[in-house]
Amino acid sequence: QVQLMESGGGLVQTGGSLRLSCAASGSVFNILAMGWYRQAPGKQRDMVATITLTGTTNYEDSVKGRFTISRDDAKNTVYLQMNSLKPEDTAVYYCKTRLRRGFLGEYDYWGQGTQVTVSS
């Protein structure tokens, strides 16, 4: 089993910053990619940022230039640095990791989510 432990959410003012962390533990042997997703009330869950095994990053358009995804392979941890936060960034943020499971293919594992609230 794989578990994802998230931290760093909270309440900030417009223009403020937060740093989210997600540490993977358990049977983590072949991480193909990790990423952050978010879901606001009444809306679908959308990709925010991802980072692959080779270090390639991808960002949702509205966060480009403000958010940065990074990882620490020794700690099996992915981070999301969020700067210049806006009220529209308010959502529950979820961490996801994609693992290669040999013959069985690829599997996704999700964290429990952490609330980010940006006041206007």
Report the radius of gyration as a whole number of Å: 14 Å
Helix content: under 10%
Q: Could you state the order of secondary-structure elements as H and E?
A: EEEEEEEEEEE
CA-based shape:
elongated
Helix-strand category:
mainly beta
What value does the average pLDDT take? 95
What share of the residues does DSSP label as strand, in percent? over 45%
Alpha-carbon distance between the two ends: 40 Å
Write a structural description.
This protein is mainly beta. 0% of the residues lie in helices and 59% in strands. The protein has no helices and eleven strands. Strands 2, 4, 5, 6, 9, 10 and 11 form a seven-stranded mixed sheet that branches. Strands 1-3-8-7 form a four-stranded antiparallel sheet, with no helix packed on it. It is elongated. The mean pLDDT is 95.
In short:
This protein is mainly β.
Index terms:
7-stranded mixed β-sheet, mainly beta, 4-stranded antiparallel β-sheet, 120 residues
Protein topology:
Blueprint: E1 2-7, E2 10-13, E3 18-26, E4 31-39, E5 46-52, E6 57-59, E7 67-72, E8 77-82, E9 91-100, E10 106-110, E11 114-119
Parallel strand pairs: 2-11
Antiparallel strand pairs: 1-3, 3-8, 4-5, 4-9, 5-6, 7-8, 9-10, 9-11
